[in-house]
Amino acid sequence: MAALDMQVIGELRFPGRPEIVSDVRIYVSRWLVIELPEAADDGELVDNVRLLATELAVNAIKHTFSGRWRKGSFRVRMWLGAGRVRVEVMDQGWWSGPRLRADPDGTSGRGLLILATLAANWGVKRRWFGRTVWFELPVQSARFDCAPGNLVEIFDGRNP
After folding, report:
1. What's the pTM value of the predicted model, to 2 decimals?
2. To pair with 124 at 20 to 30 A between CA atoms, which of 45, 60, 64, 94?
3. Where is the Histidine kinase/HSP90-like ATPase domain (predicted)?
4. Which domains does the chain have, with CATH numbers?
5. First and final CA of the chain: distance in angstroms?
C-alpha cells in the first residue's frame, strides 16, 4: 500500500494480452500529465514511467496466469503525492521473489534490472491471489512544496 500522503490518480484492469501493452503506456502517460501538467515538460519522467510500467505489464503477461489464462488480466494503479509517483502492477502470478540476473547472451530478462536501475524505490508484495510489483520515481513540482514540514516555515505566526 502506498503512503497516506499519496492519492490514486488512475487505475484500470487490462486483459493479459501482449497487444494491450501499448494501452498501458498511453494510460500511465495520460494519468500523469492530466494530474500534473508540468510533467509534460519533463520528458525523462514521462519516459521512465512509460518504460517501467511497460516492463511490469510485459512481465505480468509473460510470466504469470495474467497472460496464460484465456480470461487472465492485470491491474495498473498510479499514485501521486509527496514528491513522487508510484505505479503498481497487480498480476495473477504465484508468489516468488524477483530475479535480477539476466542471461548475458539472452534477448530478454532485463526488465527488473532496468527497474532497479531507474526507480528510486521498488518492490514486490504478496496478495491473496497474485502479487503486486511497484516502483516510485521522484517528481519535482511546486505542487509538493507545501509538504507538512514546510508549513511550519510558512505559517509561523508572522503576517505574510
Report:
1. 0.79
2. 45
3. 14-134
4. 7-154 (3.30.565.10)
5. 38
Q: What is the model's pLDDT at position 150?
A: 37
pLDDT digits (tens, 9 = 90+) for 105-120: 554 556 678 888 899 9
Confidence of residue 52 (pLDDT cuts 50, 70, 90): very high
Sign of the CA dihedral running 42, 146, 7, 90? positive
Closest CA to 76 of 66, 86, 89, 63: 89
DSSP string, 123-154: EEEEETTEEEEEEEEE---GGGTT-HHHHHHH
Instruction: Give the residue carrying C-alpha cell 505489464.
Output: 57
**88 neighbors 133 (Cβ within 8 angstroms):** yes
- Residue showing cell 514521462: 46
For the chain, the residue count is: 160
Provide the 3-class DSSP secondary structure of residue 37.
Answer: helix
Contact 72, 129 (CB under 8 A): no
| Beta strand extents in the chain (DSSP E only) | 7-15, 73-81, 84-91, 121-127, 130-138
Asked if 137 and 155 count as a contact pair (C-beta separation under 8 A), the reply is: no
pLDDT band at residue 148, thresholds of 50, 70 and 90? very low
| Phi, psi for 78 (deg, rounded to 5) | -120, 135
